Amino acid sequence: MDMSVPADSVTFAPRYTLAVDAMGGDNAPDIVLGGLELAADRHPGARILLIGDEALLRRQLPHYPKLAALCDIRHAASSISMDMKPTTALRLRDSSLRLAMDAVAQGEAQGVVSAGNSGAMLTLAKIVIKTMPGITRPAMAAVNPSARGDVVMLDLGANLACDARNLVEFAVMGEAFAKAVLGLPSPRIGLLNVGAEELKGDERLRQAADSLRDSVLGPQFHGFVEGHDITAGTTDVVVTDGFTGNVALKTGEGALKLAFLLLKRVFQTNLLTRLGYLLVRPGLERMREWIDPRRYNGAMFVGLNGVVVKSHGGADAEGFASAVDVAMDMVTHHFNDAIRLRLEQMGLAPTQNELVTTDSVG
Amino acid sequence: MDMSVPADSVTFAPRYTLAVDAMGGDNAPDIVLGGLELAADRHPGARILLIGDEALLRRQLPHYPKLAALCDIRHAASSISMDMKPTTALRLRDSSLRLAMDAVAQGEAQGVVSAGNSGAMLTLAKIVIKTMPGITRPAMAAVNPSARGDVVMLDLGANLACDARNLVEFAVMGEAFAKAVLGLPSPRIGLLNVGAEELKGDERLRQAADSLRDSVLGPQFHGFVEGHDITAGTTDVVVTDGFTGNVALKTGEGALKLAFLLLKRVFQTNLLTRLGYLLVRPGLERMREWIDPRRYNGAMFVGLNGVVVKSHGGADAEGFASAVDVAMDMVTHHFNDAIRLRLEQMGLAPTQNELVTTDSVG
Questions:
Q1: Is residue A6's pLDDT more than 60?
Q2: pLDDT tens, B107-120?
Q3: Looking at the domain covering B1-134+303-362, what would its CATH class be?
């Protein structure tokens, strides 16, 4: 049972449900439907609540038989465009994204997946699905490639300035994600800083490090890590504020892009190098796929009363299917329960009083 | 005439002098002497004030005839180790690094180059050479590769937290560097942020952007740039606080390292890929050299009353020679005069009163 479901709305649910925004993203609903068709194979026990223009979806659905077998359609009269401001999106109470969030808030679904507008998505999630009790601020997380495997990094931009408590919460959520989605039994956690020594950085970072060291996560806390540790895979989780995380994510992606650009120039030098390219092409393509930021496609908004996964707006069907996989992993591996348990163990869980306040203020 | 030289100590100087710390770095003095020998060819008119263990240097010098022709040796009784704390280094008044800084402070040399301890170097530079009037905080700058050419980024860790005024000063210093060393007539300046839109980021960034837009640098100010713009070469100068800059620099280097690691695995797959490697090896080696962070070897401490260049501690002779080239470019192209002119044009130059205060407080 997902504890984020309000007690009074729990009904017998034989399987997990994802609410999917069929209208979000550059190529909706085609890639959404195509992605769900691919994902249906991998999650035959799931139920999909497909939300969007009902007439359009009913016309398309026959082309996606596996999806059709496990989906219900819910009509949404409007949708949120990619460039709509969050405040405008918030007023659109019948948008496909809003109805998907409502389904999670009302306990009909355990998670939502959308390839739509991420600013609107974060704002709606905070207001409709609401922040999990004990978490001060939801964060944006993503998976990055490293020399030793996948690395979860957060926050990536949901909170530009963060205090020590926020960073500790990010560590809790990053650890839960690495367990649920990457399948690591005991993920190692690093706090991003300008040096590995204990005295580096500002007071806020040192406080967060002290809290983590003294907590139940202590044995898994590696200490401070530096920028190059992200791709070295020194730790499985990299915790940072949203400003630094956003810059680091984009800088790393940019550097890999530069490497491929230069590599292309090298291979195009002459006939011999072109022949060289033909010999290594399959390996190069695997390499490019492996470091593609869209492999785990998109980002997760974590710290909410439900699973919220944002697929890349320009993703293809395979990309959207990956986002569905991540959401299903988070739901079936009880990502939010793992966070709640850690918060309790660390003395960060809210009291009954605070729970009421959180619910009413939202 | 370098205006950083106090008026009462100006003597007729037929050529520029660099004070070189012969004892700093992992392989001193060998790579220092080897590097200077290489650089001597490129700067025949320069004078080198070589500071270190006099007996040792006199014994070695005959092996470096070109350097011998343009160098004077000054004895230093001690040297600063790579792991010495800045506060300890500060008490060592006869170290080779200290005497090199003294030479600049006393107007005997226009710049200092060392492959030694960077923390000690920055601390000593601030106290001995002193911050330039009008500059609030010296910064650390370095050159990075991009798809469109070289990009200067600063600050890289000298100031973890920065205000809008600091960022504006970094833009001034970055522009002067791009002119003096990269030879760009009108460098484009970007302010690192989490999005390109004017409303992104915090108040401090928006204030800095407004100041730059309204200043003499306005036409060269591109606005906000994101992490991926660093390697895309969207601007020639990327301005950021020391925390973000340090993380971005190391993240970018780490990502390029990951790309080479994966590439190596691709080439080692089988006999055909090994043959492919042989065909592209020359190009790959040029590519690796080109993106090597040590091509411009090391970092510049800017905003001081003299040129201060830090060569990488583990650099080879060619690397140390590059650091000498950068220092010579900064000196001969009047890097500090360019900063002073901009500060005046932007109304940031100190008044006569402030000048006196700055000098006495140091």
A1: no
A2: 999 999 999 998 99
A3: alpha beta
- Pairwise CB contact (< 8 Å): A279 & B291: no
Please check the confidence at residue A197 and state whether its pLDDT lies above 90.
Answer: no
ipTM for the predicted complex comes to 0.88
Cβ <8 Å between B254 and A230? yes
Identify all chain A residues contacting B243, using CB atoms and an 8 Å cutoff: 194, 201-202, 244
The reported pLDDT for the residue numbered B351 is 66
Interface of B with A in 38-67 (CB under 8 A): none
Given CATH 3.30.420.10, say whether it is the number of domain A139-293. no
Cβ neighbour number for residue A117 with a 10 Å cutoff: 25
State the smallest CA–CA distance between residue B302 and chain A in angstroms. 19
Closest to B204 in 3D by CA, of B237, B159, B263: B159
Q: Which residue in the set A157, A228, A246 is minimally distant from B253, CB to CB?
A: A228
Domain A1-135+303-362, CATH among 3.40.630.30, 3.30.200.20, 3.40.50.10950, 3.40.630.10: 3.40.50.10950
The number of angstroms, rounded, from the C-alpha of A279 to the middle of its chain's C-alpha atoms is 37
Residue A238: in which H helix or E strand, if any?
A: strand A237-239
A149 in contact with B, Cβ within 8 Å:
no
Number of H helices and E strands in chain A, helices first, is 14, 11
**Taking a contact as any Cβ pair under 8 Å apart, which residues of chain B between 100 and 119 contact chain A?**
none
Residue contact A291–B259, C-beta within 8 A: yes
The torsion region of residue A297 among left (phi > 0), alpha (psi -120 to 50) and beta comes to left
pLDDT in tens, A115-135: 999 899 999 999 999 999 999
A192 and chain B in contact, CB less than 8 A: yes
